[in-house]
Amino acid sequence: MSLPFQKELEKYKNINEDEILSKLSEDELKQLEHVLDDLDPENALLPAGFRQKDQTTKPATGPFDRERLLLYLEKQALEHKDREDFVPFTGEKKGKIFIPKEKPIETRTEEKVTLDPELEEALASASDTELYDLA
After folding, report:
1. I want to staple 119 with a disulfide (CB 3.0 to 4.6 A). Which of 102, 115, 128, 135 is the partner?
2. Which 3 state secondary structure label does DSSP give 54?
3. 3-state DSSP call for residue 77?
4. What is the DSSP letter of 20?
5. Taking Cα atoms as reference points, which of 61, 60, 38, 63 lies closest to residue 51?
6. What is the pLDDT of residues 17-34, one digit of tens each?
7. What is the pLDDT of residues 80-90, one digit of tens each?
8. Rounded to an integer, what distance in angstroms lies between the CA atom of residue 118 and that of residue 135?
9. The dihedral formed by the CA atoms of 28, 41, 49 and 25, expressed in degrees to the nearest 10
């Protein structure tokens, strides 16, 4: 059973959205952006980049030249005077020198265990499998 409105929706399945957007003018794109902002600006399903409108309408000032920028910043840093220290550095050491406390070294002493002579003889003559069974 096919509903009548489903037939009407079939014709919209094969629309190329990119082609339609490329045909829009700058003003129409801004208008579309404002309409989309009004729909749901806090939609958690949209990525953050799509939730906030584009605010970069300033034209580019020119090509980016990293070396020139670094040279300019270095020149600015060299020309800028450092502020005077309130207390001049003299290199004088003040206070006591920190000496960490020595912790006593823990030594383990083996305890001497004495067994009955019968047990010692039994353990000495026991095979590996018997020792495994005892463990």
Report:
1. 115
2. coil
3. helix
4. H
5. 38
6. 888 888 888 899 888 877
7. 988 887 888 88
8. 19
9. 0
Nearest to 21 by CA among 11, 12, 31, 13: 31
Q: Which residue has the tokens 């220290």?
A: 85
56's tokens? 């970069």
How many Cβ atoms sit within 10 Å of the Cβ of residue 55? 6
Which regions of 13-100 does DSSP assign to beta strands (E)?
A: none
DSSP H helices in 2-127: 4-10, 17-23, 26-39, 48-51, 66-79, 117-125
Sign of CA dihedral 109, 115, 119, 124: positive
Q: pTM for the complete prediction?
A: 0.28
Per this entry, what is the length of the chain?
135
The answer to whether 10 and 2 have CB atoms below 8 angstroms apart is no
> Residue 22 corresponds to which tokens in the numbers above?
């490329």
